[in-house]
Each structure stands twice: as structure tokens, then as C-alpha cells.
User: What shape does this take?
Amino acid sequence: MKRVIKSIKYRLVSDAYEDLFQIAAKGIGGKITDCKTVLGDFALVPIPLHNKRLRERGFNQAEMIAQSIHDASGIPVVNALDRIRYTRAQAEIRHANERRVNMADAFRVRPNISVSGGSFLLVDDVITSGATTGEAARTLKEAGAHSVAVLALAQG
Assistant: This one.
């Protein structure tokens, strides 16, 4: 799964992503039920791309995954985070510590969004070291989120 995702992501083929996510969303149902048990009511928060990377790629794979989950489950998608710092692609960095440094202070909660007291499921395509989702979760928690969990299609 990780190789397929990387191949699609870096070849910028969003149509293939859509097909992959529709297939994956069907298998995620049990995980979503588990999340409801742990989190109660929650919203999906896709990991955002920096605007520069979004322009380069043309799509945000995490948003596409979150939308597929929403379509299958009705769980709301909230684009609560902005990527405020352009970072090196995590796939280019080997060591977990360097990945954490690369992601430090990369996110902020959008000014018009309140996360205080809420429960959220961060959505991404691949988790390798957890540096990206860890920083996103930290950002949400510091802004008052009650609980944050993470869902990814693959682990690297």
C-alpha cells in the first residue's frame, strides 16, 4: 500500500488516488467504529499541505481520504489546520529526529475554527515516524482539543 501511495502521490495522479480511497474507505468502517467508541462524536481533520506544495501537486491526498471516509460514513470533515511553514518532504528524510525537527511549528489552527473541547481524527495517507501527525496533534491539543487520534492508509 505504501509503495502504491508513494507512486501515485509523486506522479501526481489524483484520479488513481480517488479509486484507491474509495476501495480503502470500505475497509476502514471497523476502524471508524473503534474511533467512535474511544472518541465519541468527532470530526475528520486532514493533514494539510503547504500552499506551495498544493499548487505543485494539484491535490491534497489527505483531504481526498477524509472526503472518502465522509462519503462512506457521514462523519464531518473540518479543515481545522493550516500548514504555515514550507517543509522538506518527509519521504526525503531518513531519521525520525530529523523528521520531527522538519515538522516543528509547521501547523496552526485556522483563525476561524474553534477546536476547544472537540474530538478529532487526523487523516493522512502514510505514517512513517509519526512526526507530521504528532505535530498536527500537538497543535490541536494546545488549541484546546479534548482528544486527537490518527488514521492513515499505510504505515511506512
